[in-house]
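Why run this: before we spend reagent on co-expression, it is cheaper to look at a predicted model of the complex and decide which construct boundaries make sense. The entries below are exactly what would go into the expression plan.
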Amino acid sequence: MSRLCCSDFRQFMDPYLDGEFDVRERAEFDAHLAICGDCRRHYEERAWFQQSLRPVLAKPVPMPPDARVRLRAKLAMATKPSGLKLWIRRLAIPVPLLAAACAVFLVVTPLAGFAPWVTDAVDQHRLTLPVEVPSSMADDVDAWFEGKLPFRVESPRFDENVHLLGGRLSRIGGTAGYRSAAYIIYGVGRHKLSVIAFENRDLDLNGGRSRVIQGKDVEFYERNGYLVALYNRGPVAYAVTSDLPEEEFVSILKSAL
Amino acid sequence: MLKGLFGRKKEHVDFEETAMPVADALYGAALRLLRDPQLAEDLVQETLLRAYRFWHQFEPGTNIKAWLFRIQTNLFINHYRKHQGEQKVLDDRQVDDLLERYSEPAQVTIPLDLRESFLKEVVGDEVLAALERLPVEFRLAVLLADMQDFSYKEIAEMLDCPVGTVMSRLHRGRKLLQAQLYQYALDRGIISGPPAEEEAEVESLEAFRQRKAAGGER
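The model came back. Tokens follow.
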């Protein structure tokens, strides 16, 4: 084995710096570094440069939140055919088991499907509907709804990070047909949070994932990457929709419950 | 939140927990490659959709980041490369000129006492601008090694080329980056120094190892 010369050292300084060499190769480079002042200066300069640049180059560039929402929506759509494939695969199981599975499926399906009001809440959340009462004061917004709806609206009073933007009249689907609703919109940083208030009589609003927040029952539904939280206040149901992460969403809900 | 996206099926949960956390890294690299947020978003979307489709091919326990970057790098090379505006990238003549002038890093050594001001004035946006001016094959090598910390072997697999090619692209890419920043510092009077002599052509890592094994001096 020949000794390493300066031109080799300099040419292969990158893999040496990057830890690409095995122990034997590295020992050769280490030995050269120990005896050659010139190469040591070159190496030191290069190492300093790499070290200074690395934090700039490696600085994370997070995906913007709205791009992440679109990504989730695309992925959610992509799961549909795969779900179908799974069912096709399951057809290979023995007939009695299949029959049993079908019986379970028939019972489970109505619960797993989305109630029309969940779909409505998400659809209205996704559209940027113009507000009819632009105001940051909850009292003003509530007063505007008075006399326009057959129930009293109480816009949720969230914490100071959630900014009320205004409200408008809306409607929401249910098993007993459409009913009038109040649509109230808030901003949370770059996210949007919307609330739909409607009368809960004759509606089966269970079927979501139940959580108790501040001693109140809240049902969570997930659709197209959005979370819908539903709680009742007397005869009025409030459906809060957002694309915020669940825990952040829950902590916001806490402030209003 | 994510859990609800795909229902509760194990493979969906696995995908969310394993692949989704890499989305930001994929986006950062895509942005530096394409230099356009919309195109970067499209590339990441396509990468993760493809990864989801081929999720059964991912071997649990192996490097998820390398697997996803291989998909993204291939998509970029085959479909997106043409979209990136080449107008701001160094042309062949500028590359040769820079490599020739600053062939030896130490020829434009920054005195120790000027390092701090060099860092303060040069390192930052100018580094990213210099990176974005690198011709794409060098930019890919630098991004994968210095931004994402992949080994030469992993990069070679992603680019489907020999390890020696990765080394040479990385060597030239970093040199070009360094040369641009030295030039920038020289132009602004932060440092001074005469550029100098030409360096011999880069030898492949393989050839170097063979030569060493044979015991030959250069």
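The first helix of chain B runs from residue 2 to 5. The CA atoms of residues 51 and 68 of chain B lie 7 Å apart. Bring this page to Monday's planning discussion.
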